[in-house]
Every structure is written in structure tokens, then in C-alpha cells.
Amino acid sequence: MSFKILAPLLIACIFGEISEEDNVLILNDSNFEQLLAQQSQILVNFYSPWSQSCKSLIPEYSKAALALKQISPAIYIAKVDAAANPTLAEKYGITEYPTLKYISEEGSIKYTGDLTGDSITAWLIKRSQSQIQNYSTITELQSVLENTKVAVVLFATIKFPHHFEAASKLFDDAIFIICTDKDAFSYYGVEEWSIMMFKQYDDKATRYYGPMALNYLIKWIEENKRPWTWQYCSDASEFIFQKKHPALFFFRYEGEANTYNEIYEKLAKEYKSKLVFTHADLSLPAYKKLSVVLGVPKHAQPTFVIIDHDGNGINKYLYYKTVNEEDLRSFIKGWLNKEIEPYAKSEPIPDQLYAQGIRIIVAENFQQIVMDNKKDVLVQFYAPWSVACRNLAKDYEKLAATLIEIDELVIAKIDMYLNDVKGQFIQDFPTIKFFPAKNKKGVLFHGDANYENLLKFIQEYTSFKAEDKKPKLDL
């Protein structure tokens, strides 16, 4: 019997009711845990059907799926429509599409390699093998450490704990080593089963004193491998916004950096266990936009912004006074002691509630309008300076005009330059979210924002289907 005929039978035997498409398992909120109970590791593509990047990935992902099924033991990969399964998307911190996550019983890690079948296949095969390097002499160890940015070393002469192997599979930016040389133990002042991290920056060597438990070790590695002061980048963004670590943002022009760096770096070292210290150059457009998103006043530079996370979203705390060590330390202490209030801005509720059929909302009435569980609400989060937002204007107005007779549907927009909305951290403009009456977590739109695509998007996710006996949405 050929593999082509046998493969579906094997899938049915192994995974029961979980279906597949082009060799990729199809997961959702209801069957995800079932798969994890049967598979010790899985790569999951969180995608949006509206994203062109997701569509481009389909043949490459299927190519990887086929190749991985044919090795022994087979490795299976899966996909989740994140827009249709918001619980999973939220659990794994999915904010952009496609996002590929390697998930195991130990935890999860974002795939950051090339989106090609060959690269995905090679990466997963490597993940299925031991990631640990073994050295029996201090000379070998030090030779490697001299040329390695981040290394986590277990000093052990007997069988090493399972959690060290497990942790090694969750980090792409550190190597994991076991050293068995007793001379190395003496040189570094450690005992059997001690763990140390060696870096090429900041504190060059750090020892782990936590319990021999995987979750504690992972947390320690995450917190100690990052620099004390971190230039804002995609890795910093994921660590702060997806993994929800409190952070202090330092916005300044690069030419001013030397004026404040001594204070900034001193406080970063002092409070490294409490805050991620990250800096951004306001002369670069992307960072300028980020400063707007975080509510930095236009003419207040340099500015420090602390953000933290609670169950309802992100809180922001601003400092844009004269920069000196004493006042900045007081600002940080005020945040730690919960003595300062978060900052939020809102336009007043407008006298004219609609413009060209579009409901104008502001931070003050966002909850009242968008979270109305009797209405489906489409919201465009926009910035007035965004060319893409201006280009969308006519199509968005046409959409509102087309659907204006449907009482159960609201087409709305909000200016994110002038409004901070709790629970909605928007970095790209325009961002379009649909909040159906039955799903107020919201569904994020991905793809080309135009009249036809937005109309189809509403039709797919509306709470009021055309066949309902209740209010009809006949598109």
C-alpha cells in the first residue's frame, strides 16, 4: 500500500476526529487540547484567511508537513484559523499573521526562520533532537564561551535533570552546555547540578539559585539573557507585549542619547528584575509612530513611558520632566508602589455622532458602543497622518452607506492619535476589528482593506446570519 493511501488511515488512527488538509492537521478551540495530549510536540500555524502572507505560506507549509510525516518517527504540524478561534489566539499571544509556534508540554516558542518548506522541515527535525552540547574539559568550555553570545551551562558529572534538556528546546538565541570537568566546578565556584549563564554583555556570568523546576528555569533564562538596556525591536516587542512583561520605554533622538545614557543604564541595572528597559530613536518613523501609540506628547522629548498589563489591557505611565536620576528613580518607585495613576486620553464625545454614515467613537464611549451585546460593530482604528487610512476612506464610507439600513450593525472609526482605549493596543494603521454581538473579544481583519473584502469579512463573522429568524444581515 502506498504512503499516499496509508497516510490518511494513520492520521485517523492516531488523532481520531481531527481532520487534515494537504497533510496539515486542522485545529480549533475544541480539539486543540486533544492533540496536545497525544503529541509531545507540534508546530502550529496561526493564520488569518484574509492575509495574503498566510495564503502565500500554504504550499510551503504543506510541503513541510508531507516531508515531516515521512520521517521516522513522524512529526505532525497543524494550523489554526486564529480569527475564528480567538481563545487559542489569545492564549498564545497571537497578534500578527501568520505566526508559527512550536508547542510542547514544556512551553512554546515562536518560529522565526524562513517561511519555506525546507527551512521549516530542518528547524523541526533539529528541535526533535537533543540541543545540548557536551564538554569534558574547562579548556573546551571556555573556548566555546569566548565565541558565544549567550550560553546556559549545567555543571554535572552524573545524569542531568530532564528539565534542562526540555528548556534547551525552547530557546533559539542561546546554546545549552553540560560540562563534566571538576576543574571547571572549582574555577567557577559551583557544585554538582549548578547552572550558570554566560553572556558577552552586561553581567558576564550569572548563577541560577532557583528550584530545579522547568517553569522557574525558563523564567530565569528569559529574564537574564536579555540586555539590561534593549533597543526596541521585534524580540523586545514580543517579550513586552505578548509575554506581558512590564517595561520602561525611553524615547529620545539618537543625538541626545549620550546626555542621558549614564542615568538610564544605571537605573536599568538597578531595576532589571522589575522592568524591561528599552529605548527607541524618535528620528526613525517606526519609533515615532510607537511613541504616538504609547501616548507620548508631541513636543515632550525625551520621554519615559512605563507600561504594565492587567486583565483589561495595558496601562501607561508618563514621565517627561527634566531628566535627572533622583526624579526618574522616584517615578519608577511611584509605579512600583502603585502611587501614580495611569495615563489615558480621550476626545470629548462629538456633537455630530456620524460622518458619512460612519459612527464616530472616542475612548469615553468605546465600551458603551462597541461592547453592546445586541450589536455587531466594525471598528477602524486609524491615525490621521496615515496614508493607508486616507486611501481607505472612500471604500469605508461606501461600506457604511451599503449597510446603513441594518440596525444591528454599526460601522465605526476611532482616532487612535487622540484616544487611548483600554484593552486595545494598536500599532498598525489602519487596524480593523469586528466585534460581533456574540464575540466581544473581537476578530482582527487581515488582508487588503477594501470595500469587497470588508463586506465579505462582515458576512463571515456576523452574529446575524441571513437564515436567522432574528434580524437579518443579507449581504
TrEMBL record:
PROSITE patterns: THIOREDOXIN_2 (PS51352). Residues 6-130, 295-463 form the Thioredoxin domain. CDD domains: PDI_a_family, PDI_a_PDI_a'_C, PDI_b_family. Keywords: Signal. One of its GO terms (biological process) is protein folding. InterPro entries: Thioredoxin-like_sf (IPR036249), Thioredoxin_domain (IPR013766). Pfam families: Thioredoxin, Thioredoxin_6. Residues 1-20 form the signal peptide. GO terms for molecular function: protein disulfide isomerase activity. One of its GO terms (cellular component) is endoplasmic reticulum. Belongs to the protein disulfide isomerase family. This is Thioredoxin domain-containing protein. It comes from Blepharisma stoltei.
